[in-house]
Records
---
Amino acid sequence: MSDLSWPSIVLMVLVPLPVGALLATPFWRAHQIILGNLAGSAVVFLSAVVLMLQEQAMLDRLTQRCLAAGVTCWPEPPAFIRFAIFACIGLVEVFALFLISLRVEHRAARRRYSPEWR
């Protein structure tokens, strides 16, 4: 029980941010930046929670196997660290999503002014 779930970590790094940005884009284009941020953030945080629950289920199965074998075993790294990895990745992705939305909002605001006034 000493290995991390690297496929899940890679999935968390690669998938939620693009999906969240894709979901937020229609809202951003309609000048509803906050709703877009909420939609995109929901995707990122829900993926983190789902992957944490998957990790918890895997740890429970491993613990039950150990108990059935009559030994006590502890996961390494502990469950808290495993969950913190997904939470930190999710938080960084939400920060990135907000930075992307700031860029989109800035471009939209610049488009509203005529080129002579930019």
---
Amino acid sequence: MRRYRITIDGLTYEVEIDDPHARPVTARVSGETFVVDVDSAVDSHQSTAGSRPSPVDSTTGNRRSALSPPGGQQALTAPIPGTIVSVIATVGQIVKRGDELLTIEAMKMFNVIRSPWAGTIAAVHVAEGRRVLHGDPLITFVIM
């Protein structure tokens, strides 16, 4: 786990990233967990207005965010192109972070795909023998 202190528009946030190389990234911002899809590096001079989490309102405790909070649906996408060789996950299954979901074969190597979140599987979008491209949806979760 890596820890960061970031300042956006004068507001400081404590950010913990479980695995900065995982896609999507699981991050905790000021104690709240978010699932973040990272597409590519952004030039540090580009504006990202509107894409930051809002600070917690101290009177209501509410927070608005463009990030995916727990309790919402989130799709797990293929991290690499390849062929699905096994699917263990089933719709309605409750999984913990790290549970094995499926295996993708790419370049004669078998890559076990594990759950990045705790939650319930809402949909399985692939079957054994199907080819997938990088970014294709594999499984949709309802995140706990």
---
Amino acid sequence: MKRIRKYRQSGRHSSFPKQLLLIGSLCFLFTTAGTQRAQAQWVVVDPAHIAESVLNGLRLVDQIKNQVQQIRNEVEMLKKLPSPPWRQIQALTQQLDNLMRQGEAVAYSTDNLLSQFGIKFPGFQAYINWSTEQRRQFEATLDTYRNVLLSLRQQGQHFAQSQAELQAIKNRMGSVTGQTAAIEMSSTLEAFSAEELVLIRQLLAAQTNALVVQASYGVSRDAQITASREMMYKATAAQPRLVGNAYTGF
């Protein structure tokens, strides 16, 4: 009781309600701010946008299903064709491949390509028999170029045939009637284009083959000359030098 009277007499009890009011105001502000943040975060979520995205995804799935079914229908129709007018180029591609292997050429389709390449173009290795090795490298390079020319000639002969087949396809396009005939014509054009791309790729491979062989010949020749000189220098340096008035060679 004495302490309470002393506290009241000191006048400190007058500031206590102010402290309670200050604490209550701060609590109200924090609560209000938290509620506003929660409301702001909730407003960002757009249910209509989410629903529209889901609908777009479902439409895309339906489109893919329809396309797959359409392709299946086209395949079934093509199976019913008695004799599709598609050409066969397997024989031609095999012939072009065989041309690249003739003679001493280094061909990209050779089974033991790396070993044959290493024999003809050994790189930094001194000549054992300069005449024989140079002749082998000359023949390999020239035969490779000769085979590319033969492939170009064969491609040129086939080019006229391809033009005639393409013109025949174009002439038939005007008489196409019905879905089955349209699918047949479309598939014929796609197969024709794919086969032409195969022939172009094979020709590019042959040309690249020739360029690689030519570059390899030059690099290997320079490397072998350098290795042979280095071997001669080492052999000369290993010879005993004569002293006195004799000529030492240096």
